[in-house]
Amino acid sequence: MKFFLSLILVVILFSSCQDSSGERSMTSDSLDSPAKAFGDEVEADTKKSKVEDEKESNSVAERKLIKKGSIAFESSDVNETKREINKLVSKYRGYIGNEHINKEYDRISHSLTVRIPSEYFDAFLEGISSVTKELEDKSIHVEDVTEEFIDIQARIKTKKAVEARYEELLSRANTIEEILKVENQIGSLRAEIESMEGRLRYLKNRVGLSTLNIDYYQKIEGSVDSPDSFGSKFKDALYKGWQGFELLVIGIAHLWIIIVLVFIGYFIYKLRKKRRKNKEL
């Protein structure tokens, strides 16, 4: 396998340096100097690519930033708040990814996950802040993925260039064994390229669309009694009384053997007392 890979490198370099005087068969002659030249070429390309990547990464205007955050607040009317949020989402060309509504005895809670184009994220956040009087919780996180973004792009470009050379080499292969080995290399390269392209698409999506989790709730009037009200005290007394009864039953359950022994002792005592009276008579 190593022999054939070296042979592949030789053929690629050899074909690029010679005039079109006909195809040559793949042999092991003159491996060292062409392979070294090819290695030097790849190393030079790699260094050049790194320099270009560093220059590109220094451009603040091209920074790739993933913005995400969460806010929480109380609403006087959850339905009206939802309508206002829908207007803002439509205005800034976003969409609601997830929505959850939970109703409890004392409040109604809404949870939303909103995706907004990154360039409108700050404006959308300001719009949401205007919907409520005060934010109870706010958390914003920005992740810079510029370096990873550029690195993946460069690696894809390099892998595709190598793939193209293998494709050219495949057309020059003479035996089935050579064809299979080249195709195996192409398949491995293609898998790596698709994996990196998938990661790049994911980053583009996260960079292009920011994520904001919104949690808001509305208290239900009259559902919560004042701590000093009669109703609150009465409910508290009933609850504590029931707890006391439960503890009593549990205590009796723990002492059942003692209670049984007491009843047996009492029965024996009464039986003996009755016999004594009968003897006296």
Structural shape: elongated
- Please count the helical segments: 8
Question: What is the number of strand segments?
Answer: 5
Order of strands side by side in the largest beta sheet?
Answer: 2-3-5-1-4
Q: What would you say the CATH architecture of the domain at 64-223 is? A: 2-Layer Sandwich
Question: In the CATH scheme, what's the topology name of the domain at 64-223?
Answer: Alpha-Beta Plaits
Oligomerization category of the chains in this entry: single chain
* CATH H level, superfamily name of the domain at 64-223: ACT domain
Query: What value does the average pLDDT take?
Result: 78
Radius of gyration, in Å, reads 40 Å
Strand content: 15-25%
What is the C-level CATH assignment of the domain at 64-223?
Answer: Alpha Beta
User: How would you spell out the order of helices and strands?
Assistant: HHEHEEHEHHEHH
Q: What's a concise summary of this model?
A:
The protein has 281 residues and is of the alpha+beta class.
Keywords:
single chain; 281 residues; alpha+beta; Alpha-Beta Plaits; five-stranded mixed beta sheet; 8 helices; 63% helix; 18% strand; disordered N terminus
Explain the overall architecture.
The protein is α+β, with helices and mostly antiparallel strands and 281 residues long. It has a domain at 64-223: Alpha-Beta Plaits (2-Layer Sandwich), CATH 3.30.70.260. Helices cover 63% and strands 18% of the residues. The protein has eight helices and five strands. The protein has helices at residues 2-17, 32-57, 78-91, 121-131, 146-172, 176-208, 230-254, 256-280; strands at residues 65-74, 95-103, 107-117, 135-144, 209-219. A five-stranded mixed β-sheet has the order 2-3-5-1-4.
